[in-house]
Amino acid sequence: MKDEVRIDLVGEFSKSRRVEGSRTLLDFDVTDFLTSSELEEFRMETGLRSSPVTLVLPSQPQDATRQTARQNRVVVAFLHGFGGGRGSWGIRKSSLGREGGIVDNVLRTVQRQGKEAIGLVLAGLGHDGGNVDAAMWDLGLTPEHYARQLEYALRHLDLYDCGRIIGIGHSLGAAALWEFAGRNFASGTGPVGREGRRPELSLVSISPVRSMAQNRGLTLGCHIAGQGLDLFARTHLRLWRSPSQRLRSLVGMASVLKGLARQGPFRANLGGIKGLVLIGERDWIARMGLGASLRQAGCTWPVAQLTGLGHDLLWHPATARALTFYMPRLL
Predict the structure, then answer these.
(1) Rounded Cα gap, residues 264 and 277, in angstroms
(2) pLDDT at 7
(3) Number of structural domains the chain divides into
(4) SS3 306
(5) Which range marks the domain in which residue 221 is found?
(6) Helix 143-156 and helix 245-262: axis angle, to 10°?
(7) Nearest-angstrom CA–CA distance, 150 and 166
(8) 97-109 pLDDT tens trace
(9) How open is the CA angle 259-53-1, to the nearest 5 degrees?
(10) Mind listing the pLDDT tens digit for each residue in 193-212?
(11) CA nearest 172: which of 67, 53, 252, 57?
């Protein structure tokens, strides 16, 4: 991100600006940056009518030259899972107590390696303010839609202007990051910043669900649950002309379940990308078919198992500790 762009963002979204410790947090919608034609393309590509994000910036830019800062800049993108929100990462509440949230812990660890750390926290699919476009209700939203949402945010915020992107995703967010990597980095090409430099990519998959596509029972369960939730949401939408955010979230959850049911096997090779998998000891959903999925994708990533935990890991301090331990290896 260029310094001029950063200044414009801080000024334009000063009402949503808040300072937490040594960081400045900005809440805004990526679609505010799009023209009418770009907005229509965005809706077709992502299945969403809006894309709220939180940008986490260092309060004081580094004193290095602009070129040096770009080479040392690391953008960390956080994609939450099904039913989660930006607060899942601890940026709106002290969800991990005195140890701080995951965003704060990860960015602090990156900075300790001599890097400039910028955080990008996506609102996700149909939740936390990301409204589903009506045209996608029947088809559903897949992890690929989530990946495209990340692409738009990175491109329109000039965040490809960095040395490395680290994607950290939980559950559905982890599956989306696989799609993002397969679409943009698996071939060895990938997007470039304004100066023509191509960033490196690292991935952290927390409780990934990408292998669900190879399990007919889980796929069928997602389809049935999605159809049932969709019927419930549509019935209530007919009764209230101005639906609440909770009802819009239900529509999004139904769309995600239907999208998970129709995603196909993962075809790309991620062998050249640094990565890490974090799973809970009792997370049978993520563990099912995980080894085969990693082999098919050419991944030799370490798999760290957190004792006694299930699928939802973000609330537990052990997750933040594991991330800070492995983070230097991903830089």
Answers:
(1) 21
(2) 45
(3) 2
(4) strand
(5) 217-256
(6) 120
(7) 12
(8) 445 689 999 999 9
(9) 120
(10) 777 788 999 999 999 887 66
(11) 252
Shared domain check, 324 and 229? no
Work out the burial of residue 156: count CB atoms within 10 Å of its CB; fewer than 13 is exposed, 13-18 middle, 19 or more buried.
middle
Burial class (CB in 10 A: 0-12, 13-18, 19+), 288: middle
Helix or strand (DSSP H, E) at 78:
strand 73-79
Say whether both 184 and 117 belong to one domain. Answer: yes
**Residue 277 to residue 270: CA distance in whole angstroms:** 13
Global pTM value: 0.87
Per-position b or e across 69-108, b if 16+ CB within 10 A of its CB: bbebbbbbbbbbbbbbbbbbbbbbeebbeeebbbbbbbbb
Tokens read off for 23: 């960081």
Residue range 202-255, pLDDT digits in tens: 999 999 887 665 666 677 777 777 777 777 777 776 666 666 667 767 777 777
Let me know whether 92 and 134 are in one domain.
yes
